[in-house]
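thought: fold this chain, then report.
action: predict
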Amino acid sequence: MIRSSLIVVGVLSLMPGWLQAAPVEVISQSELEKRVSRLERMLENPVLLQLSQRLAEQQKEIQSMQDRIDRLTFRLRQTQQQTQQQIIALQERVAALEARLKNSPPVHETVPTPDETTAHPASSAQGVSSSRGGATSGDMAAQRQAYDAAMALLRKGKYQQAVQAFDAFLQRYPHSSLAPNAAYWAGEAYMVLLDFRSALARFERVVKAYPKSGKYYDSLYRSTEALYKLGQRKEAVARLQQLIKDQNAPDKLKKRAQALLEKWRGKTS
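observation:
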């Protein structure tokens, strides 16, 4: 009995230290009863429990949607930056085309030379007539009218309509002395439209079909840019080097070709 009393006294003497080391929040009995009652109602009422679970799920969905909005906002900013860069590039192409149009001398109708007619054998009655004795004055007037109409569309910035008009001209008058110019300007319009494959086809048509025309070297130069845009960079560089080494190429164009070649090399270094 005495031993038990001593143990109780010892335990009681240690309790103040325990209480001081681990303070406990004091909650009134009424507040505790309210909490217990609330939990009991939730457990007893499945509707409240479902609402609580649904609320938690909605909070997760809201957080997920916010994360998605943040990602979409970031992508939108990237797209806006890329669009702005494309607009600037397009404006530069339009400005370059307008400069070429401004500096382009007027084209006068002439009878195709023997070299030109040899390079492009006639495939129609009109072509045979042109290669033998030249086009009639009526044909020449019609060609000039069609060509001028296409050029007018190009100068107005109606590039899609212009390429359609130039292509129609080339289909109808493939052996006209205006055909090289029509093919070249169609290629320029396609470059502005970012259709580099179609542009390359028009420039190469001038290079291969009209080697004696005044647009030969311009088309050769522009074809290298179209090739580069299409990812065919080795061929573009090789063709540009060929142009630079060509003794008959205009010096001004060779300087532009050399500058473009150095620019490309700077991008790859």
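thought: worth noting. The mean pLDDT is 75.
final: tokens above.
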